[in-house]
């Protein structure tokens, strides 16, 4: 009987030690398996091709971080170019294991950007799978004891009915749960990552903290120009230097167009789920005038003039980063409702910063609507290599003479800036007068449908 108690005590002391040794062995096996299978499968994703004329950009943001899982074609990063933001998507599902560039870095086409470990998105802990199989194969302590008891002689078997000996002090014991209101003691292992995260938190807090405003202070703030703003400045100055710009003005009585919009805007929005504004009418009127005055839809290339029988209309849209001009292609084949849908779709993409380079490539004529900001007069700048740009302005009620009577009418001033190298004054003025006539009586546009 005494020998059975001695054996039981020995087992109780050796059992936890055996389990700890077993857990260490499985940990080493798991670590070895991770290094041999995972890192060898990681693939390097490079900066994609952005456009023919663009070879580099600025890494604006990382949408994913190391350790995050991504699905195929999911956005991982955004690169800012001088024309638009380019999304870098994951070529396949997997997990981000390394980022090879920092936000704000200049990256070139073909440069290594990040490393991706292939696998199903949302997969959790593949490396723990082999351990779980081993744990399934590993018998439980009760099963192991029963097997050992069966293998031992009957005189050495321990009576299961006897009370278990007290656990030794060296055995693993559960930690007492802290009472409410008492601070928890941190593990030494968990302190290290928190120390690493403190500098980041301090940096973020420093960025958020702003010095209090002082009356009479004369402070200055310098902000680096982003690529889009630099490109806009470069192109505007290039336009002023290259084109022989001249601007002509005219006034449009908006009464008929406003009456037409008031009559049909509710039905158009109900049937087509799009707002019926003035932009579609101006786009349609300009398209018809461009077909009658082809020089306004042309461009200069070298020592040749290129005339086009199609109209790709660039619509100026203001965004937080600057003015962009997405293109509505083959607008000559569209009706008013379809034009409104295309313009609304491009404007939404511009506001959401999702315009692609293809959305802004090309364009044969531009319309800029400064009236939404309250502009009364203005001289827009030509968007090279185009030959003209139409500027819309705000609508104001003014006294005008109609059939010998002074009446109040809603008037909009429109401006056409044109390249005098391509258009003479006669052609430019004729173009603007035709636009005015179409808009003052929209029924005329139906004759060209």
Describe this structure in words.
Pfam families: 2-oxoacid_dh, Biotin_lipoyl. Residues 119-130 have a biased composition (Low complexity). The structure is a single chain. By secondary structure, this protein is an alpha+beta fold. The chain folds into 3 domains: 1-38 and 126-164, no CATH class; 42-118, RNA polymerase II/Efflux pump adaptor protein, barrel-sandwich hybrid domain (OB fold (Dihydrolipoamide Acetyltransferase, E2P), Beta Barrel), CATH 2.40.50; 228-448, Chloramphenicol acetyltransferase-like domain (Chloramphenicol Acetyltransferase), CATH 3.30.559. Helices cover 36% and strands 22% of the residues. The protein has 10 helices and 19 strands. It has helices at 2-37, 128-137, 141-151, 188-208, 227-242, 255-272, 279-292, 336-351, 357-360, 425-440; strands at residues 43-46, 56-62, 69-70, 75-80, 85-89, 94-99, 106-108, 112-118, 245-253, 299-301, 304-306, 313-315, 317-319, 322-324, 327-328, 365-369, 388-392, 395-402, 405-419. Strands 9, 12, 15, 16, 17, 18 and 19 form a 7-stranded mixed β-sheet that branches. Strand 18 (395-402) and strand 19 form a beta hairpin. The longest helix has 36 residues, at 2-37. It is elongated and about 80 Å long. The model is unreliable at 27-40, 124-136, 153-158, 168-174 and 180-200 (pLDDT under 50).
According to DSSP, the number of beta strands is 19
Distance linking N and C termini: 109 Å
User: Which CATH class of the largest domain is shown?
Assistant: Alpha Beta
Structural class: alpha+beta
Q: Please name the CATH topology of the largest domain.
A: Chloramphenicol Acetyltransferase
The number of distinct structural domains comes to: 3
Main sheet: strands, sense, barrel: 7 strands, mixed
Q: Label the overall shape.
A: elongated
Gyration radius, in Å: 37 Å
CATH homologous superfamily placement of the largest domain: Chloramphenicol acetyltransferase-like domain
What do the pLDDT scores average to? 78
String of helices and strands: HEEEEEEEEHHHHEHHEEEEEEHHEEEEH
What percent of residues are in strands? 15-25%
Domain Lipoyl-binding: 42-117
EC number: 2.3.1.61
Biased composition (Basic and acidic residues): 144-163, 172-210
Family: Belongs to the 2-oxoacid dehydrogenase family.
């Amino acid at each position: 009987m005494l020998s059975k108690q001695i054996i039981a005590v020995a087992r109780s002391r050796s059992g936890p030690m055996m389990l700890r040794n077993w857990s260490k062995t499985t940990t080493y096996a798991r670590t070895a398996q991770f290094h041999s299978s995972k890192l060898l499968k990681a693939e390097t994703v490079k900066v994609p091709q952005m456009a023919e004329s663009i070879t580099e950009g600025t890494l604006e943001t990382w949408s994913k971080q190391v350790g995050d899982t991504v699905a195929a074609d999911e956005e991982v990063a955004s690169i800012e170019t001088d024309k638009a933001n380019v999304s870098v998507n994951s070529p396949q599902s997997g997990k981000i294991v390394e980022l090879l560039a920092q936000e704000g870095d200049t990256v070139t086409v073909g440069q290594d950007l990040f490393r991706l470990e292939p696998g199903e998105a949302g997969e959790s802990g593949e490396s723990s799978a082999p351990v779980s199989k081993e744990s399934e194969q590993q018998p439980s302590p009760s099963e192991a004891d029963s097997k050992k008891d069966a293998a031992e002689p009957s005189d050495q078997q321990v009576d299961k009915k006897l009370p278990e000996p007290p656990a030794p002090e060296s055995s693993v014991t559960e930690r007492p749960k802290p009472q409410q209101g008492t601070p928890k003691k941190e593990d030494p292992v968990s302190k290290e990552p928190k120390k690493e995260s403190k500098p980041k938190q301090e940096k973020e807090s420093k960025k958020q903290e702003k010095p209090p405003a002082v009356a009479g202070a004369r402070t200055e703030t310098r902000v680096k120009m982003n690529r889009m703003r630099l490109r806009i400045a470069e192109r505007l100055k290039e336009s002023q230097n290259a084109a022989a710009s001249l601007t002509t003005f005219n006034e449009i009585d908006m009464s008929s167009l406003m009456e037409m919009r008031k009559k049909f805007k509710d039905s158009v929005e109900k049937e087509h789920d799009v707002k019926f504004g003035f932009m579609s009418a101006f786009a349609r009127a300009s398209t018809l005038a461009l077909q009658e005055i082809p020089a306004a839809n042309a461009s200069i290339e070298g020592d040749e003039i290129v005339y086009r029988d199609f109209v790709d209309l660039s619509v100026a849209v203001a965004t937080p980063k600057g003015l962009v001009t997405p293109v509505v292609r083959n607008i000559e084949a569209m009706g008013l409702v379809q034009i409104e849908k295309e313009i609304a779709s491009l404007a939404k993409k511009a506001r959401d910063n999702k315009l692609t380079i293809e959305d802004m490539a090309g364009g044969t004529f531009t319309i800029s609507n400064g009236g939404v900001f309250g502009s009364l007069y203005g001289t827009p700048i030509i968007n090279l290599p185009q030959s003209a740009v139409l500027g819309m302005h705000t609508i104001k009620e003014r006294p005008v003479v109609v059939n010998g009577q002074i009446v109040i009418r809603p008037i909009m001033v429109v401006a056409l800036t044109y390249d005098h190298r391509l258009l003479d004054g006669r052609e430019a003025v004729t173009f603007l007068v035709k636009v005015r006539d179409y808009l003052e009586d929209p029924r005329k546009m139906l004759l060209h449908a």
